[in-house]
Every structure is written in structure tokens, then in C-alpha cells.
Specification:
By secondary structure, the protein is an all-alpha fold. It is about 75% helix and about 0% strand. The protein contains six helices and no strands.
């Protein structure tokens, strides 16, 4: 049997299998990293959901003590409603969507901060055990949000590196894979807040 006439076919088969393995490996790596991004995004949403679940309890507790703070309470409720209305698919997230989500969540943080500052006027509320517990839970939740956002950014980085390095970037474009945005600080957060009493 003459192997020389089969040699071109063997070389072609080896090349095809090699290219297929290489290309599918790049795609599979991107899919795995994208799943990490999705998981991280789910954790971000879970942390924000925990905060959103605490808000009605905080508002109801403050209502009982602070009748004069209706506008502040309304602002908290409206900010929460606006924030929960924004949903993002982590596989198709754009920088604009993430900025809108971040802005809405900043509105919740801002209105909650105003509410907690107004509580200083009500010594009985500050001493209330259930309010103190809610305030502690809120502080813990804010730390969880920070951690979840940091981990989201940590999951985005290897995904973006994977699809932006040569020659993976060529195949990533063929597969329709796009770079994912990072969470960034909200505008003005680099300045210390002014505290007025």
C-alpha cells in the first residue's frame, strides 16, 4: 500500500482537526468566562435585591416616628421603584445600560442617606431596637453590594482579556462576542460629601 498518496489527506485532516480544536477551545473558553460574568451579575442583583427588600421595613419603621419626613420617605420609595424597573441581560450589557443601572442605584443610596440623616432628629427612633437592627442590616448590605460589584468587575476582566487578545479577537468577532463594561464610580463620587447639621 502506497502511503504517499494518502499523505496529503492525512495532513489536511490533521490541519482541520487542529484548527477546529483551536477555534472551539477559544469559543468554549469565552463561554465559560461569560458564565462567570453572568454568575457575578446575578450576585450583584441579589445584593441590590436584599437592599430593596430592606427599604419597606426601614420606611415603615421611620413612618411610625417621623411624620414630618413624608417627602424623604416618598423619595426613598420612588428611587427604589425606579431602580427595580431597570433590568439588564448580562450577556448583552452595554456601557449605557450599566450607567443607567448605576445611576438608578445611586438614587436609592442618596435617598437612603438623606433618610438616615433625618433620623438624627428623632432620638426615640435612633434608640428603637428594630430600627437599629435594620440600620445594621443596611450597612451590611451596602458592603455586600460593594463586594458583588468588585467581583463582577473581576469576572469581566478575564472575559474581556480573552476576547480582545490576538488572535482570539478575530474569532470573537466571528462569534459575535463583545466586550463587557465594568462598574465605575458614579459621577461626583470622587468629592467628599458635604455634611450639614
Amino acid at each position: 500500500m502506497d502511503f504517499k498518496k494518502f499523505l496529503p489527506w492525512i495532513i489536511a485532516a490533521v490541519l482541520i482537526i487542529g484548527i477546529y480544536s483551536w477555534a472551539s477551545g477559544i469559543y468554549n473558553k469565552a463561554v465559560t468566562l461569560e458564565q462567570d460574568v453572568k454568575e457575578s451579575w446575578g450576585n450583584v442583583n441579589t445584593a441590590y435585591q436584599r437592599r430593596n427588600d430592606l427599604i419597606p421595613n426601614i420606611v415603615n419603621t421611620v413612618k411610625g416616628y417621623a411624620e414630618h419626613e413624608k417627602s424623604t420617605l416618598t423619595a426613598v420609595i420612588e428611587a427604589r421603584a425606579k431602580a427595580t424597573a431597570i433590568t439588564i441581560d448580562p450577556t448583552k450589557v452595554t456601557p449605557e445600560q450599566l450607567a443607567a443601572f448605576n445611576s438608578a442605584q445611586s438614587g436609592v443610596s442618596s435617598s437612603l442617606s438623606k433618610l438616615l440623616v433625618s433620623v438624627e432628629q428623632y432620638p426615640n427612633l435612633k434608640a428603637d431596637a428594630s430600627f437599629m437592627k435594620l440600620q445594621d442590616e443596611l450597612a451590611s448590605t451596602e458592603n455586600q453590594i460593594l463586594t458583588a460589584r468588585t467581583r463582577f468587575n473581576e469576572a469581566v476582566k478575564p472575559y474581556n482579556n480573552n476576547i480582545n487578545t490576538f488572535p482570539r479577537n478575530i474569532l470573537a468577532r466571528m462569534y459575535g462576542l463583545k466586550e463587557k463594561p465594568y462598574f465605575e464610580a458614579t459621577v461626583g463620587s470622587d468629592k467628599a460629601p458635604e455634611v450639614k447639621f
